[in-house]
Write a structure and sequence with these properties.
By secondary structure, the protein is mostly helical. The chain is built from six helices and no strands. 60% of the residues lie in helices and 0% in strands. The N and C termini lie far apart (34 Å).
Amino acid sequence: MHEIINDSTAIPRTFCDYCADYCKKEIPISKYFSIYNDEMSSNVDQMLNFLYYNNYTERYAKASQCVGCGACEKVCPQHIEISSELEKVAELFEN
């Protein structure tokens, strides 16, 4: 199962949300990864992804507000380098 997820997405992840529970900035990590993956795979209208991201940032912290503390990465069962992946999300949606 893990290999299927890794092969089909830009940021391999599940929706377990363990990471978000430990985020000091309350960044909705899996939500941001999901719209990033949609954007990279072109499965969804690109304007919608930017709209989704902007809507999320009205309620939650932006991806760029990650402080890189690593608390989320310590509990990630997929061992994702979350802070560096959030940098990619911020680069795409915030620039």
